[in-house]
Amino acid sequence: MTTAPDLIDAHHHVWDLSVRGQDWITGPELAPIRRDFTLDDLAPEARAAGVRATVLVQTVTVAEETPEFLALADRSDLVTAVVGWTDLTRPDVAHALASLRQLPGGQHLVGLRHQVQGEPDPEWLLRPDVSRGLAAVADAGLVYDLVVLPHQLPACVKAAAEHPELTFVLDHLGKPPIASGELEPWRSQVRALAHLPNTVCKLSGLVTEADRATWTVDALRPYSETVLDAFGPGRVMFGSDWPVCTLAVTYEQVIDVARELVGGSDEDVFAGTARRVYLSRVGARSSRT
């Protein structure tokens, strides 16, 4: 595999089931990842692929996870940034964010994420208490990752419009229905989100939204082309979604698939966008997006 210089993986996870369970890993189809995945597992594969920095992303809505991730980043020469979690609806969310910044590794906190995909209210992002929390995230100079399902994209558009000072990062292209081959209404909704300048999209999660047994690069292409056209390479970034991606491909293969979809090793997609959106915030205390 031909590697690109300064490749940044903008989305991966780790977990230790002896510390806490991952309640989303259910059903026989997820059995292969129902085990521990650590940085010791990832690091050799990442280095071999030419990855020089990664962004470690929240997995569960448990307050203790983010301090653990920050401490891990502080000890790592691979994990450069952390997208963590705190309860956006708590009245003292600004204090909570400041407290996270004071922890060991707190300088690596660059963003927050909530499992919005699991919220029954399709307009959860528009609730007044959540909106107040999003404003605090912006005031702290952090970004907000969106892990949502297609029917929640209209609320993402409204939230991004209501908070122009906050950068919203759409994870996994908004989980389009790749397995069924449908494009609408996902495509129109993604384009509406991309129309807002404070939005970014991760080229991640495609292989596991597709049929994991029969997927092809050509089946993924309409979805990657949609976001590359809508956002432009300067607002798209590669993320492996390791170890979830291993349900369908190896770490090396997920990078190769992304390169094939992009048409090469585009510097923005594979490093520049992640550097601007995430890595530039490492060590920052309070700055507007």
UniProtKB/TrEMBL annotation:
Pfam families associated with the record: Amidohydro_2 (PF04909)
UniProt xrefs under SUPFAM superfamilies: Metallo-dependent hydrolases
Coiled coil: none
Domain Amidohydrolase-related: 8-278
Signal sequence bounds: none
Entry-linked Gene3D superfamilies: Metal-dependent hydrolases (3.20.20.140)
Family: Belongs to the metallo-dependent hydrolases superfamily.
Protein name per its UniProtKB record: Amidohydrolase family protein
Origin species: Streptomyces kunmingensis
